[in-house]
Write a structure and sequence with these properties.
This protein is 45% helix and 21% strand. It is α+β, with helices and mostly antiparallel strands. It contains 7 helices and 4 strands; from the N terminus they run ββββααααααα. It comes from Streptomyces sioyaensis.
Length: 235
């Protein structure tokens, strides 16, 4: 014999927006509905008294799970890939500005690093053009590639390009760091170390850039020092 539910609370939902997010339950990118609602006391299934607002919540279109708006803080897979690609690109420019571009080994390593990160059409000329623009103080790094090479920063230290690139390093790495596992943050630092070491030992300017990278990636100074020393020692 079934008992009749005499009283309860029912929520009436209304969709106010939609978009794409990384669903924690599905473990991937999904569409969502942003919904708000009103709770009402029901008697014998009939809604009577208001019990206040509900939500807002994000409802996954696939699993129908409900999540708080802070679920949007986690980047989608597509956005995360773009953030990682741009971080490697900025890190590479900062190290080229710090150590110079006179070494063929450094230039080759820098281009290979940027290509592996997702800029498959990156060329040496394109990287040098961006460095020249920074040295001339023509604006912030945009991540786009236009034009042919110029020599800028080839024989200069961090001073001409340093302030802009230090800002870019923090802006590109700090939002990424919380979404990377410790091993991922370390791997990103080591990519920079390989560029710096391509022509020999670290210069003071290169060490300064790599320390900034470690800080922006939320690595402890001792861990940054350990990783940079390990990268210098042939395996």
């Amino acid at each position: 014999m079934h008992k009749m539910c005499v009283m309860g609370v029912r929520t009436s939902w209304r969709t106010v927006a939609d978009g794409e997010f990384f669903c924690p339950d599905c473990g991937g990118d999904r569409n969502y509905l942003r919904r708000t609602g009103r709770r009402r006391l029901t008697v014998l299934g009939v809604p009577l008294l208001s019990r206040g607002a509900a939500g807002p919540v994000l409802e996954c279109s696939a699993c129908r799970g409900h999540f708080g708006p802070d679920a949007l803080d986690h980047p989608t897979t597509v956005r995360f890939s773009a953030m990682l690609r741009d971080a490697v690109h900025t890190l590479t420019l900062a190290l080229l500005a710090a150590g110079g571009t006179s070494s063929r080994a450094v230039r080759d390593t820098a281009v290979a690093t940027v290509r592996a990160a997702g800029f498959a059409d990156c060329s040496e000329d394109q990287l040098l053009t961006l460095l020249a623009a920074l040295a001339a103080d023509t604006g912030r790094v945009t991540g786009s590639y236009d034009g042919a090479a110029a020599g800028g920063c080839a024989h200069q230290g961090m001073d001409p390009c340093g302030t802009a690139l230090a800002i870019e390093l923090h802006e590109s790495l700090e939002p990424l760091a919380p979404h990377l596992a410790p091993a991922g943050r370390e791997a990103l630092l080591l990519q920079g170390a390989r560029i710096a070491l391509a022509d020999g030992a670290y210069t003071p300017a290169e060490r300064e850039v790599l320390s900034t990278v470690g800080s922006a990636l939320m690595l402890r100074p001792a861990d940054t020092h350990r990783l940079l020393a390990a990268a210098r020692t042939p395996s």
